[in-house]
Amino acid sequence: MKAFRNQPIITKMRLMTAAIIIVFIVVLLLSFGTYWLLGSRRSMEESLEQSAARASRSLDNDFRSITESFVSIFGSESFSMKMTDMINPYSDKIQNRVIVQDELMRIAAADHLIVSALIYDTESDVTYSLFRDVLIPSRARVLWNSELVSISGIEILPERPSPIRGQDTIIPMVFPLVYRYNGAFMADDKGELIVIILLSPEEIRKIMPQDSILRDKQGSSITEEVSLTANGKGVYQAAAELPFSDLELIAYADFTARLLDLMWTAVTSILAAILALLAFTILFSFILRRYVTLPIGKLKTAVSEIERGNYSVRADFSGYDELGELRDAISRMATTIDSQIGAIREEQEKRTKTEMRLLTEQLTPHFLYNTLECIQQEIQTGNSRASSEMTRALSIYLRTVLAYGKETILIKNEIQHDMSYIRIMNGRFRRNVIYQHMATPETQECEILKMVLQPFIENSIKHGFGIGDESTWVQQPEIITSFTLSDGRIRMEISDNGKGFDEDEYLAIMHGEKGSGHIGIRNTYLRLIKFYGEENVAIDVSSIPYFRSTVTIEVPMLHESAE
Q1: Residues 477, 467: contact at Cβ < 8 Å?
Q2: pLDDT tens-digit profile of 402-434?
Q3: Could you tell me which of 204, 217, 209 has the C-alpha nearest to residue 236?
Q4: In terms of DSSP H, where are the helices of 381-463?
Q5: In angstroms, rounded to a whole number, what is the distance separating the alpha carbons of residues 233 and 239?
Q6: Which residue of 38, 203, 473, 496 is 20 to 30 Å from 481, comparing CA positions?
Q7: 3-state secondary structure of 153
């Protein structure tokens, strides 16, 4: 009961309607089904008996006709003369086959049940057939040894493989003959010659009722057994004798299956009586669905969409009843939530932009401090040319940093920015740090977050080469940057040949998990994840001291300039 209570309204109504219809049908079935079933069983039994009797008379007449044709053909004086030659042990077997062709052809055409005919010489163990029929050597005799011993007059034997190539099975009808001085006679045993008429099982089954067999008096099946048996539940059998051929036809009927058919017919009839109830039920269900369940379903869908964050969805149905009032209340609620979320999102964007500016402002003074300190030292030492070069490099550097308030910069301008910084550092410490950059013209026109590489270059100069404290000696300091595009992402690499670093410690500093120094690379990482999103930024580091230490950064390619 609890499960039913928790079902949707439309499901409850459908279940109740189905229950009413089922109860009504059960009452009708109990009222009329018993009468129909009892009367139908007797009717089917009588029908089975009649069909078995008709089939048995038809088959018996065919067997009688075949026998009469056999007597008229093989009981003639001319065939008796041919028999004299055939039973002669010195006769030509090939010639014997030739002289019986007329008789075999006539008997093969005597009835529609006959497929072909053979003559078997029991003394010489030779089989003669029609020229048109190619015999299969392994089946040419047709008769089994046990059957040859027990033959006594005309017999119809069980179905078996055909001796003729291209045919499946046959039913042999045998006529044993013996020669006497005044003609040919039917033998009481296998005789001297046996005429074997090959009957078609398919033609015989066309006459017989469905699910029936032919049996002889000993109970052996002449035709193949059927799947039904007389001992099966719900199976009825009707037997009819074939007097001339001394056979019995047994027809079976599975009343269980037939009664199911009758029950289906009865149900069909009952359905006609409940059409009015069904029409009323459908009409009632339609009205209920249109004015109750459909609006509720739309309200449910609208609420589900609101839960997913779609606040513009509205339940689209007319009416100003209780459901209409609920629809309007949900719409007002969605509008209020949407406006509140918009305000929160706008506030969050402002906060993010503020944080980005603070990080940039925190980074820029750090660079300016180091650079101005270098220029001041050059001026104090009276090196005006060096201070002039450093001042010019600083102006280019600051132009790139300001970038007219934009957060992004073209890669070619980022490269120029980095070159300016290296010139400043080379001028201060009187070193020659070689800077190389690799980027195709197409790549140089792509935009990235500005001032991404400079903090890592500063880290290479200060800590990788030890420029400033002479803690590390590198014969020829070199920094290489490269930019490549792949699958909509930009890959940036900064490499140097300095003393290297501990990879895990480097990543820990970048993620703020260790130490308070290295403010440049820490702030750069924060700017990257703020701008691109943490899930879109991939950073990898590797270090082989005094050979190649590399920082790799991958970010999505910007399709439009970000303001």
Answers
A1: yes
A2: 655 578 889 999 998 888 888 887 876 778 899
A3: 209
A4: 384-402, 411-429, 441-444, 454-459
A5: 18
A6: 473
A7: coil
